[in-house]
């Protein structure tokens, strides 16, 4: 019996952390150095098989900029899963107000307060290929994730490290939920 489960998944996190790149890598197996910034949100779908079940992700890739913040609830409302992305290197031009890890924590708080109570939450420490520029330790992120009901993975849209894995793990948890 092949059961199919449709699951809305939202990507949240600062602009420039690599949300669109993670989706592009996951859905199309591609990476571009100069990914255009997302306006509003973009939609993708991707099916993933877990044992004898299929999860059909309906992926909403959001823009991340503060000026689009008021739109965010449209994308996380009713979401079965959220992937919250930060940049382990934090070196993002133009974003000087808040580090992306701190911004990720704000998204977690917002989801906990206003999202669906059973949303599976994944924390992606992206740009893991840039280890020499690391600003947030894996230990710190792991501890934060454990204390706040998320699971944590370090990803790289560039080299594809853990990209399929973070979506697969999310699908697995959705099926177990
Ligand atoms: P978004 O605003 O969160 O959607 O971020 P983008 O996907 O547009 O990526 C922002 C920039 O970071 C682009 O120049 C990407 O090429 C780059 N980028 C994204 N993911 C990675 C990664 O894993 N490693 C490296 N080195 N660069 C990345
Ligand atoms: Mg984007």
TrEMBL record:
**UniProt name for this protein:** Ras-related protein
- Transport in keyword set: yes
Q: Which family does it belong to?
A: Belongs to the small GTPase superfamily. Rab family.
Q: Which domain of life is it from?
A: Eukaryota
* GO terms for biological process, alphabetical: protein transport
Q: How does it sit in the membrane?
A: Lipid-anchor
Picking any one GO molecular function of the record gives:
GTP binding
The alphabetical list of record keywords is:
GTP-binding, Lipoprotein, Membrane, Nucleotide-binding, Prenylation, Protein transport, Transport
Q: Which residues of the full protein are shown?
A: 6 to 182 of 211
GO cellular component terms given for this protein: cytoplasm; endomembrane system
Which source organism does the UniProt entry give? Musa troglodytarum
Report the subcellular localization: Endomembrane system
């Amino acid at each position: 019996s092949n059961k199919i489960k449709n699951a809305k998944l939202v990507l949240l996190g600062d602009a420039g952390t690599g949300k669109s790149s993670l989706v592009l890598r996951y859905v199309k197996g591609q990476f571009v150095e100069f990914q255009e910034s997302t306006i509003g949100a973009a939609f993708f779908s991707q099916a993933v098989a877990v044992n004898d079940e299929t999860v059909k992700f309906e992926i909403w890739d959001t823009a991340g900029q503060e000026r689009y913040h008021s739109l965010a609830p449209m994308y996380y409302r009713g979401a079965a899963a959220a992937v919250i992305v930060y940049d382990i290197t934090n070196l993002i031009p133009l974003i000087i107000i808040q580090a992306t890890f701190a911004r990720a924590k704000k998204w977690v708080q917002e989801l906990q307060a206003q999202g669906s109570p059973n949303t599976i939450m994944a924390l992606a420490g992206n740009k893991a290929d840039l280890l020499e520029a690391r600003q947030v330790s894996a230990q710190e992120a792991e501890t934060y994730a454990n204390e706040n009901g998320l699971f944590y993975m370090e990803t790289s849209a560039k080299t594809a490290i853990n990209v399929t894995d973070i979506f697969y793990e999310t699908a697995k948890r959705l099926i177990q939920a």
